[in-house]
Amino acid sequence: MTRILLVEDEPSIVGSLSEFLASEGFSTDHADGMKSAMEKLAAGGFHLVLLDVSLAEGNGFSVCSAIKGQYDIPVIFLTASGDEASIVAGLDLGADDYVAKPFRPRELVSRIRSALRRYGSSSVIALPGQVTVDADRGAVTKAGAEVPLSALEYRILLLFASNRGRLLTRERLLEDIWDIAGDFVNDNTLTVYIKRIREKIEDDPAHPEIIRTVRGLGYRVD
Q1: Which residues of the chain are in CATH 3.40.50.2300 domains?
Q2: Where in the chain do CATH 1.10.10.10 domains reside?
Q3: The CATH number fitting domain 3-119, selected from 3.40.50.150, 3.40.50.2300, 3.30.450.20, 3.30.70.2190
Q4: Which residues contact 160 (CB under 8 A, 6 or more apart)?
Q5: Which fold has domain 124-221?
Q6: For the packed helices 151-162 and 170-181, what is the interaxial angle rounded to 10 degrees?
Q7: Sheet harboring 218-221: ordered strands across?
Q8: According to DSSP H, which parts of 82-134 are helical?
Q9: Are 119 and 73 in contact (CB under 8 A)?
Q10: pTM for this one?
Q11: Where does the pLDDT of residue 180 fall: very low under 50, low under 70, confident under 90, or very high at 90 and above?
């Protein structure tokens, strides 16, 4: 399971964000300042750091600099400081992304997964039916042959691939596609796109074995 260190000194944010990330399949721990953050990172096992700029002990910029000086791990800033100078300062220190509060939780999860993919040892995700999704190349293959997908079809399939074994409701799919693409996709359009994807990757689209329908709830890729 992916472990995230949340460096934040506001208890209400720690509680709500940890609960949400847990519902998305992430394991979280938290630190309220630079000292405790570095101690927990030294113990190992973390895959990503969510870091607030304003901390009671030190500030996020110094924490980011210390993390990047010792670890090869993605860091995403969470802050109410949306000014350009703060964004540039954070990125210059090696931060991988910058999300201004208030943020949409789904958008944050999309950015977390994107950062994790960039740091992953392999960008290729294997699915049933000899289907693979290469997140770096933006390519899908079946039995070694490339599958032609539109940009939105690819984004939908990548969402399924990144959430293997987990139920994705239609509402969740629509919300995540909106966050990632900024395109308007309604419920009927989503049905059409999933049908098209199945026609391209399933051996028998009428009886899908990759993108399975969970009746009344949504879809799941095992």
Answers
A1: 3-119
A2: 124-221
A3: 3.40.50.2300
A4: 127, 168, 211, 219, 221
A5: Arc Repressor Mutant, subunit A (1.10.10)
A6: 120
A7: 168-169, 218-221, 211-214
A8: 84-92, 105-119
A9: yes
A10: 0.57
A11: very low
